[in-house]
Amino acid sequence: MNAVAVFDTAIDRAASGIPAAFTARHASGGVHRFDPAAWCGDVIAGDDALIGCCTGSTLDVGCGPGRLTSALVGAGLPALGIDVSASAVRLARRRGAPALRRDVFGPVPAAGRWRHLLLADGNIGIGGDPYRLLRRCRQLLVADGRLHAELAPAGTPAWSGTATVQAADGTDRALPWACVPPDDLPVLADGTAMRVLDTWTEAGRWFATLAPR
Ligand SMILES: C[S@@+](CC[C@H](N)C(=O)[O-])C[C@H]1O[C@@H](n2cnc3c(N)ncnc32)[C@H](O)[C@@H]1O
Could you tell me where the DSSP H helices lie in the chain? Predict the structure, then answer.
């Protein structure tokens, strides 16, 4: 089972009202807890601040069931959600969010023309290599675009690579993921030709805005 299947299964369970929370565990001891039921809801505290950062066309990378994409559209912004999970895209469309089944590392519509990119809900972890992900995000943005990323809380140990997730049947699945706390961001930005414009917290969540250098 690959990352797509891990998310497909979790999102299907959450959408059916079955407990679906799971934890990715890295060999370093790092953990990241995922809460698919929250993604299926309408709003998570702190979302408004993130939406408020977006003032033009916005690509919601790893949109899940479309919570943020639909809020962006509701705010009158041209927005698109992309996700590798077919279940996520189906649910996003069902709530009226424009969404496509796409891998962020593959072909993406309007590449190089997005004014804002979102990596919410810990999605800076997508792919297990934040350097590769931020370089890709830089390619998707216009030259003066903005990337808004949700970080791990300050003090969380950083990790990246292949984590292990225990499936509902008790077997272990591999999931490439990463945890990036604020302390690690300047080095990451430096290594990906980005610069950190701002970091802030809202409702116990940690965010940063970056721009291409
Ligand atoms: C932590 S969840 C994010 C939930 C989402 N932001 C929401 O509000 O529901 C991570 C999402 O990223 C998606 N994902 C994982 N790898 C991806 C990739 N390479 N390209 C696009 N989406 C990806 C997963 O399928 C999953 O839906």
Answer: 3-15, 36-39, 47-52, 67-74, 86-94, 130-140, 185-190
